[in-house]
Amino acid sequence: MSDKTVDRVAAATPAPVARKIKGLSDRAIAWIFVAPTIFLLLAINIFPLIWTIRLSFTNYKANRINREPEFIGLRNYERILTDSDIWLNMQATAHFLFWTIFFQVLIGFTLAWLINKKFKGNDLWTTIIVLPMMLSPAVVGNFWKFLYQPQIGLFNYIVGFFTGKDPSSFEMLGSVNLAPWSIVIVDTWMWTPFVMLICLAGLRSIPDYIYEAAEIDRASKIRQFFTITIPMVLPFLMLAVLFRGIENFKMFDLVVQLTGGGPGSTTELTSINLKREAFEKWRTGYASAYAIILFVTVFGLASIYVKALNKVKER
Amino acid sequence: MSSFSVTEPTNRTKWFAGTLVIAYALITMIPLVWIGLTGFKSPADAISYPPKYVIGSDSEAGFQPTLEGYVNLFTTRTRQTQDYLDANPPENWADEIVRQYDMVIVGPSKFGERFMNSVIIGFGSTFLSVFLGTLAAYAFSRFKIPLADDLLFFILSTRMMPPIAVAIPIFLMYRQLGLSDTHLGMILLYTAVNISLAVWLLKSFIDGIPTEYEEAALIDGYTRFQAFYKVVLPQAATGIASTAIFCLIFAWNEYAFAVLLTTANAQTAPPFIPTIIGIGGLDWPAIAAGVTLFLLPVMIFTILLRKHLLRGITFGAVRK
User: Fold this and answer.
1) H/E run at residue B188
2) How many domains does chain A have?
């Protein structure tokens, strides 16, 4: 806080005079300014969360308003954690998380590294690369579905053109083996730019004099890359992974439009499964417990990760 | 400036890097270009094999552009008997287009309405989040607020919740308050989601404005509120504008809440576009036309305002 002059003036002025001079006191203004935001977040984020926790101990069904919900203790949690289908959804989510992050980090970092070579027009091309991540994920899922159509889709045609395979011989969305990869491809197409931008910010934060010093010490370019570039970008890269991890753990809109969780439940990520339980089967209490379990999982994993991240930063 | 720097990449490196990046950019644009083209195809051309990509050519890979997709997107049509068609000649060019399928236009489709809902909810929630966000950000930036860091973290952490998890109680809450499927309900919801980002972004902008200006204004007899309104706000204008764009893009793109909490009255475009049905299945040119119209504003925004947007995206990382 650097408004010391003001504080001193304010402190030296008797309270009634101060009010006359400055209108409302700073304290009052601070609260008037912050209160609406806090109120809105309490009403639309925290209150619903508490309500979800309460519902998770009941067998409430939202489509039967007249039936009194019963308190059933931890039974919802027990049923979820012992359900083998839910572990399959968790596996699908883990597959999706791992491979999207793997490809996005690999391609995103490479692109950032290349863009940082400051070739002519790199601004314009960066913007073009960024376009996919600005679009609506549901709409992106919808038109990729068109590209993935087995007979008429452009994706199959291009793959067929380069590999000589018959474009109608494989179905990206209809096959149990390929569907999990089809969602990885679209997510990578859409979100690689995000990892790229964060890596670029990291690369640009490295001061030139470090490389100049290394050059004077006659360190090779490869050695500079591994002992300067990588360690200095790592905290940024890890942050990008954190953001993508949280987002993709919540993933719903893109995949629901693309595959709807199918075929079977091979691409049924936890969020899609949760939506089914809550808004199709209307098992509100059960779904609430499910939501809490997912929420705790994200928070737990994220905080462990943030600890690791802070350790990397301290080095 | 020195003519030689050890950190400046060589021309060959630049050329090599440039080629690879441009190649990636071009590949990444293929799906978007393809959707743009599909919007101008007839349903038969849209699903032909091999794909047609040359506009206005008669060759095997060519197609004649048509506005059919756009006409179908904005209208509802019915099939009519030959007698009716003969008795009523087409009234305009759009009518002319649907006549080739023995159909007549009977009215507008829902697309215009849904698009307007997206506009109303998008701008409404953006205005509200930026308005509340600016106030809160100013307070966090300039005043000593007890537990400020905890409050700020609390504000940010609300973004970690999966939308579906929040949607269950909000669905119940809105049902009781009569906010389901209303513009106001969606505006409040999107504001609550956006405000965390708005407060953080705006705080970083306001932190960057020197406090000396306000102090001078206060000594000149301005009230604190006048100082905020007449001195700080004009200087924060750029920051406010780029925050607004972020909020607008989020609200514009959002799908999960929209599909769960709206059905007709306040439904936005993202849940509507995939449901456009033509004769005998999905009407891909009409869907492509809708997708194009829906995505184009965001793409234009991104290109025009790239400097501010890129700062916002990397902000979380750069702040450390």
Assistant:
1) helix B183-207
2) 1
- Judged by CB atoms within 8 Å, which residues 12-51 of B form the interface with A? 13-15, 17-18, 20-22, 24-25, 28-32, 34-35, 38, 46-51
Q: What is the reported pTM?
A: 0.87
Mutate to test the interface with B, among A110, A118, A119, A242 (most CBs of B within 10 A): A119
**B192 interaction partners in chain A (CB closer than 8 Å):** 40-41, 43-45
For A107, residues 6+ apart whose C-beta sits below 8 A from its C-beta are: A188, A192, A195, A196, B24
Point out the least confidently predicted range of A109-113, A134-138, B3-7, B117-121. B3-7
Instruction: Give me the domain span that covers residue B136.
Output: 112-275
Spatial distance between the Cα atoms of A27 and A201, rounded to a whole number of angstroms: 37
Query: Residue A235 falls within a domain, yes or no?
Result: yes
User: Where does the pLDDT of residue B254 fall: very low under 50, low under 70, confident under 90, or very high at 90 and above?
Assistant: very high
Whether B142 is covered by a domain: the verdict is yes
CA distance A91 to chain B (A): 18
Beta bridge partners of B79: B103
**How many domains is chain B partitioned into structurally?**
1
Q: Say yes or no for a CB contact (<8 Å) between A252 and B162.
A: yes
Mean pLDDT computed over B54-79: 84
DSSP state of A133: G
**Partners of residue A249 in chain B, C-beta under 8 Å:** 162
Residue B234 in contact with residue B205, Cβ under 8 Å? no
Q: What is the pLDDT of residues A12-30, one digit of tens each?
A: 555 554 544 556 777 888 8
Tokens of B159: 């973004």
ipTM, 2 decimals?
A: 0.85
A86-127 pLDDT, tens digit each:
899 999 999 999 999 999 999 999 999 999 988 888 888 999
A:B CB pairs within 8 Å: 306
Mean pLDDT of B242-250: 87
> If DSSP codes are grouped into helix, strand and coil, which group holds residue A10?
helix
- Strand, helix or coil at B5? coil
In a domain, A44, yes or no: no
Mutate to test the interface with A, among B1, B21, B225, B310 (most CBs of A within 10 A): B21
Give the gap in angstroms from C-alpha B248 to the nearest C-alpha of chain A.
11
